[in-house]
Design goal:
The complex is a heterodimer of chains A (about 120) and B (about 110).
Chain A (H helix, E strand, L loop, with lengths): L4 E3 L2 E5 L4 E6 L4 E9 L5 E8 L4 E4 L2 E6 L4 E6 L8 E9 L9 E3 L3 E6 L1
Parallel strand pairs in A: 2-11
Antiparallel strand pairs in A: 1-3, 3-8, 4-5, 4-9, 6-7, 7-8, 9-10, 9-11
Chain B lengths: L4 E3 L2 E4 L5 E6 L6 E8 L3 E9 L2 E5 L6 E5 L5 E5 L8 E8 L8 E2 L3 E5 L1
Parallel strand pairs in B: 2-11
Antiparallel strand pairs in B: 1-3, 3-8, 4-5, 4-9, 5-6, 7-8, 9-10, 9-11
Classes of the chains: A mainly beta (about 120), B mainly beta (about 110).
């Protein structure tokens, strides 16, 4: 079953605009990771944010995590056509202080950036 | 540094056959996990191996199995293939389970006819 729910399911913007995607989850987590996938290919790791972190940056990416609301957001600034892809959040559930290496994925957001 | 390598990239099998997929993790990574991706169910966890031990298994029938070797390479096997097993199978590797980034391979696209 999918733990994460992503919102919106699809997002269409113009090049240069910012894109924001949201992810909600249900259980306590060790960390949350964001991935990008192009046309059914492999997943590209974007960023990992740990449960004790609130915000993280990497290049044009900004991720926030609110564990009290069990939600995260991914912001891509100054979007490019090459950012067109599906974006997934994945949570590593906190199993009593242990991780069993299982990531639970949301359904993803399809981002289309028009040139 | 080489990424996660999955072989083969594409596979076509007939119902009832069995298939073995291979995954070579990033050098130094000891945790390998497998996922199935389909349009209907999305990305679903199959199993995870660390130090040659299966530590976690997803909700899949016993036809799905796997193993990990001493060099951390992993294989998954699906026996008695069904049409519904058609999917993209993804392997991920990480240094160790928990709080480390998981890096994925390009996947094996399995089509069952």
């Amino acid at each position: 079953s999918q733990q994460g729910e992503e919102d919106p399911q699809a997002l269409s913007i113009q090049e240069g605009e910012n894109a924001t995607m949201n992810c909600s989850y249900k259980t306590s987590i060790n960390n949350l990771q964001w991935y990008r996938q192009n046309s059914g290919r492999g997943l590209v790791h974007l960023i990992l944010i740990r449960s004790n972190e609130r915000e993280k940056h990497s290049g044009r990416l900004r991720v926030t995590l609110d564990t009290s609301k069990k939600s995260s957001s991914l912001l891509i600034t100054a979007s490019r056509a090459a950012d067109t892809a599906s974006y997934f959040c994945a949570t590593d559930e906190d199993a009593g202080g242990t991780s069993y290496g299982k990531l639970t994925f949301g359904q993803g957001t399809i981002l289309t950036v028009h040139p | 540094k080489a990424g996660v390598t999955q072989t083969p990239r594409y596979l076509i099998k007939t119902r009832g056959q069995q298939v073995t997929l291979s995954c070579s993790p990033i050098s130094g990574h000891r945790s390998v996990s497998w996922y199935q991706q389909t349009p209907g169910q999305g990305l679903q966890f199959l199993f995870e191996y660390f130090s040659e031990t299966q530590r976690n298994k997803g909700n899949f029938p016993g036809r799905f199995s796997g193993r990990q070797f001493s060099n951390s390479r992993s294989e998954m096997n699906v026996s008695t293939l069904e049409l519904g097993d058609s999917a993209l199978y993804l392997c991920a590797s990480s240094l160790s389970p928990g709080n480390t980034e998981a890096f994925f391979g390009q996947g094996t696209r399995l089509t069952v006819v």
